[in-house]
Batch of 2 targets.
Target 1
Amino acid sequence: MKLFGIVGAGGFGREVMPLARQWMQSPHSGEQDAELVFVVENDYPIPQKQVNGHRVLSMDEFLSASVAERRFNIAIGNSAARERIANSIPADLATPFSVVAANHVSLDNNVIGEGAVLCSFSHITSNTKIGRYFHCNMYSYVTHDCVIGDFVTFAPGVKCNGRVIIEDHVYIGTGVIIKDASDGPIVIGRGAVIGMGAVISKSVAPGTTCMPMLRMAEMPAAG
């Protein structure tokens, strides 16, 4: 028997699980007989033995289970936690797999690293290069010639237009628009955080937090 684990039983993990189940149950996956479980870190309390009909295992239980093969995907939003967990799992015990929604669209000549989560209605067009453990949430897209690093997170509805470079551990908030620059690529530096609804038309330095301007109705009253 094979055991496929979704690491993280929180909100995003519970969103990713049905996508993984849908893929495993499809005729072309060849994994219909594998068991799909939630996996939580050893020091994380397990409040119940099942979540949404799937067993919940500690990491030790997952890695020591007597099975022919183990695969895992990390459905945790925090990119530093994703990297720590990915580096802590021995390659001889378990290997990563990507979760791709049935209605995700990916076109020509894209290179996408291991452990990705490509959610419903996400879209990657052509000639993009994407690193490990990329989270592309629902209704987000990446267009031509973009280069995206490792452990990058797109919240829902991100619009990443052509020739953008996004370095490792960047978080892009819901509804962000990243402009296609005609005079050279926009570069979003390592560890930057782009707040919900921002429009990015120039490069962002590493570690910077960018927030959109407040609408007048949201501004604090004078005095």
Target 2
Amino acid sequence: MYKHINSLTSLRGIAALVVVIHHFSYYTLPKTGATLSTYSSFFHNGYLWVDFFFILSGFIMTHVYARDFSAKLTSDNYRSYLLSRFARIYPLHIFILALFVGLEILKTFLIHHSAFTGKFNLTALFANVFLLQAFDLNCPPLFWCNTYWNEPAWSISVEFVIYCVFPFLLFFLLRNNYKHDLLMYVSSLLGILLLVTLTRGNLDSIIGVPAIARCGLECVLGIITYKVYRRGHYQKYFNLNLLAIIAITWIMLIMHNYWHYWRSLHDWLILPGFSLLILAVSVNNKGMISKFLNSQPMLYLGTRSYSVYLVHWFIQDVIKFSWVYRFNGIFGQSFTRLENFLALGVFLMITLLVASLTYKFVEVPMRHYLKSKLLLTNINE
């Protein structure tokens, strides 16, 4: 049985919150984003925390499944693993998708909106139901696909693809010695830089089919980071609190600045910082950073991070629709600076409240239900 690493749960919550603020401030209420950017580009660069998710996912899944797939890879343990992953991500995804369908129907009655058109077309709905929303081959050149009913759910699609190949990656990479690990880590980093440079020049634009490579390569970074964590030799030479401070400073400096030129290099440089942060906080100690990450409020946020991540875009759409229906105008168009920040605060509180409800009444019970049904069926077979 693996040991749960609480600090990483809290980091996942922080990452989800940064992504939520990024989406609200730069997509739903751009005036807020413009104000934030006058002080710092931290939230403008918030999309980079999706890449943190991918690296962290590789690390945590290795922590959970290393014992299962290090010695052998059988059809039974592969099937059990994949069913468990499906039960983890699918129920909440399909629930939020159903809410979007309901909202689309509501629009037709209240504002005479043409239902199931534009990005909310039936083909895209079909793709989302079957976790295929990252595979719209009609998007030249495979970017900016209009297949995402729930915008953040593009990552769910590509992650599930990587879930399918992860045991094979793990089986191969766990056999590498430390010299090969370094080579694999550097090769994956260079592969990401090449991917960014040859596509749209930043990680934010790598969605659709190329995002599979983005997710896969960053998952490899997470696997190698975990192998360093398991060896533990770095603890002899580095103070963990100092290592965490270096990682946080590294990440903050990159997040604070927005390079219009050398954009691909800017986004790429943060990735080793994410690995270093994960490595630094994975070992519990009595330092201030560990105490903060292991506090109850941070763990509460972390356990609900998946719900926060998936539900917030729907809440944004409800707000924009309600504003059009009630005031017949664009949400936030006439807001003052103070009203912009008040709107952000209210939005965050609503998101956390709704995410807490979906976590308690949808995500957890449906995950347990599916696992009990699917895994029991698998055993009986």
